[in-house]
Design goal:
Length: 433
C-alpha cells in the first residue's frame, strides 16, 4: 500500500509550484500519494507564507490541530517561507514537528523526511538547475519557475530573507520544461519568479545572457503552446522592449501585473521601490498605447510608516488614473529582519483600516464600471475548471474570469464567449457557435 501525503499550501503561486515539486519528489522517491484529509496521512506538510504577519500566528494553531488528530506515527513537516524565517524556533514552539524545510531547499524533501528534527533552511542553497520530478496539479496550465530568490531590497518585504539571492534558471531548462508540459497536453504556461523581468541577471554557472524578453520569444516558438502568462514583473524593469514584446507577441496573455505598492513618490522612495509615481504612470501609458485591451492588476500597501493623508491621496489618484482591473491590497504589516521594521512614524491601525476600506470601495466602483463595459463583448476563453453548479470557467486572453453552462468536454479547450451577465469577480457568457 502506498504512503499517504497531505499537503496544505499557503501564499503565492511560487509556493504552489514548490508544493508540486515536493509532491513529485515524494511520489517518485518515496511512493507517496496525496490525500484530501490530513487524518488519513502518514506525512503532513504545511507549505507556509511569511509575507504578512497573520498567517504566522495561524500556523501554530493549525499545527496543534494536526498533531491532535493525526494518524498514529504520522510525521509533520513545516516548509516554505516561515520555515526559512523561523527555523529551529518552530520545533521549539511545536516539539512534535518532525522537520523544517526552507523555501529554498525544496529539493531535499525526500532526505529530510528521514532525519528527525532536521532543520534545512540554507537561503543560499542553489536549486536553479535541480531536475525536479514532474507533477502538475492542473493538466491545462503549467507553472514553471524561471528564477529563485529576489535581489531587491524593498524595505517592507521579508522575501529576500526567506528565498535568498536571485538566480535565474537556464533558459534551455525552462524551454525543455515548457515543451514537456505541452507534450503532456498543457496549452498554457505560467512563468513564475519574484521579479520575472529581471530574468538573466545572474545564473549559477556559465550561461548565455538571455533576458526576459528573449526568453518570451524563445518560449513562444514552441508549437502547441498557445498562451504564456507570468508573474510578477517589477515596474522598475519595464523597459520599452519588454512592453512591446508583451503587446505584440500573440502568445502572451494580455494581462500585466504591475505592483504599484504606493502612489506617493516619497513613500516609494522609503520603500526602496526604485521608481516614482510618474515613471509608473508613464509605463502604464506606454502599455495602454501598445496593448489597449490589456488588463492591469496591482498590489498596494496602505499605511506604510510615514504615509500621510496626502501620500494616501496620491495612491487613490493613481487608482483613478489607471483604473486597475484587479487589486491585491494590504495594510502594512511589519516583518522581522526588514528595514521598515525599525521605521518610526508608524501609522495608527485604525487609520490604516480606514484607508484600506476607502481604497477597496474605490476599486469596487472601478470594477463595476469596467465590468459594465464588458457586457455584450466577445472574449476567447480557455476553460480550466469544472464548477459544481453545471458551469465551466476559464480565463479570457486578458485574464478575465468567465463561466458558461457546460460540462467537462470544454476543459482544455478555447471558445469564443459572448458576455451575457456581469458579477464583480466573474462574468457569465454564452459560447458562440
Ligand atoms: N515580488 C513579489 C512580491 C511578493 S510579496 C511579487 O511582486 O508578487 C506580494 C505582495 O505582498 C507585495 O507585492 C506586497 O504588496 C505585499 N506585501 C509584501 N510585504 C508586505 C508587508 N510587510 N506588509 C503588507 N503587505 C506586504
Ligand atoms: Fe519583495 Fe520587493 Fe522582491 S516586494 S519579493 S523584495 S521585488
Amino acid at each position: 500500500m502506498s504512503k499517504k501525503l497531505f499537503i496544505e499550501t499557503l501564499g503565492c503561486a511560487m509556493n504552489s509550484r514548490d508544493s508540486e515539486h515536493m509532491i513529485a519528489e515524494l511520489h517518485e522517491k518515496e511512493g507517496y500519494e496525496t490525500v484530501e484529509d490530513y487524518r488519513d496521512a502518514d506525512l503532513i506538510l504545511i507549505n507556509t507564507c511569511s509575507v504578512r504577519e497573520r498567517p504566522v500566528h495561524k500556523l501554530f494553531s493549525e499545527l496543534g490541530g494536526f498533531n491532535k488528530h493525526k494518524k498514529e506515527g504520522a510525521k509533520i513537516g513545516v516548509c516554505g517561507c516561515t520555515a526559512s524565517h523561523l527555523g529551529e524556533e518552530i520545533i521549539k514552539r511545536a516539539p512534535y514537528v518532525n522537520f523544517v524545510l526552507g523555501a529554498r531547499n525544496v529539493s531535499k524533501i525526500a532526505e529530510v523526511l528521514h532525519k528527525d528534527k532536521a532543520v534545512e533552511i540554507d537561503i543560499n542553497y542553489d536549486e536553479s538547475e535541480f531536475a525536479f520530478k514532474d507533477f502538475r496539479s492542473s493538466p491545462y496550465k503549467a507553472y514553471i519557475n524561471i528564477s529563485i530568490g529576489c535581489d531587491k531590497a524593498c524595505t517592507f518585504c521579508i522575501v529576500p530573507k526567506t528565498r535568498g539571492e536571485e538566480i535565474s534558471i537556464p533558459d534551455a531548462l525552462i524551454v525543455q520544461e515548457a515543451q514537456r508540459a505541452v507534450d503532456n497536453g498543457a496549452k498554457e504556461v505560467f512563468l513564475l519568479g519574484q521579479n520575472v523581468n529581471n530574468y538573466g541577471r545572474r545564473f549559477s554557472g556559465e550561461h548565455e545572457k538571455v533576458n526576459f524578453t528573449e526568453l518570451l520569444r524563445r518560449l513562444s516558438k514552441i508549437e502547441g503552446l498557445e498562451r504564456i502568462r507570468f508573474t510578477s514583473p517589477h515596474p522598475f524593469h519595464m523597459d520599452d522592449e519588454f512592453i512591446e514584446e508583451f503587446a505584440h507577441n500573440p502568445k502572451i496573455c494580455k494581462s500585466m501585473h504591475m505592483p504599484l505598492q504606493s502612489g506617493s513618490t516619497k513613500v516609494l522612495k522609503d520603500m526602496k521601490r526604485g521608481y516614482t509615481k510618474e515613471w509608473f504612470l508613464n509605463r502604464v501609458e506606454k502599455l495602454r498605447k501598445e496593448a489597449p485591451d490589456a488588463t492591469i492588476s496591482t498590489d498596494i500597501i496602505v499605511a506604510f510608516p510615514g504615509e500621510s493623508d496626502s501620500d494616501f491621496e496620491e495612491t487613490l489618484d493613481v487608482m483613478k488614473k489607471v483604473k486597475f482591473d484587479q487589486i491585491f491590497s494590504f495594510k502594512y504589516s511589519p516583518r522581522p529582519e526588514t528595514e521598515a521594521e525599525h521605521f518610526e512614524d508608524v501609522v495608527d491601525g485604525e487609520i490604516g483600516s480606514d484607508r484600506l476600506t476607502r481604497l477597496q470601495s474605490l476599486h469596487n466602483e472601478i470594477m463595476d464600471e469596467i465590468n459594465a463595459g464588458h457586457l455584450g463583448k466577445t472574449f476567447r476563453v480557455y476553460f480550466e475548471d469544472l464548477n459544481r453548479d453545471g458551469f465551466v470557467s476559464g480565463r479570457s486572453d486578458n485574464n478575465i474570469v468567465i463561466k458558461v453552462k457546460g460540462s467537462e468536454e470544454l476543459l482544455g479547450e478555447f471558445r469564443d464567449v459572448k458576455i451575457t451577465a456581469i458579477g464583480r469577480t466573474i462574468l457569465t457568457g454564452e459560447i458562440l457557435a
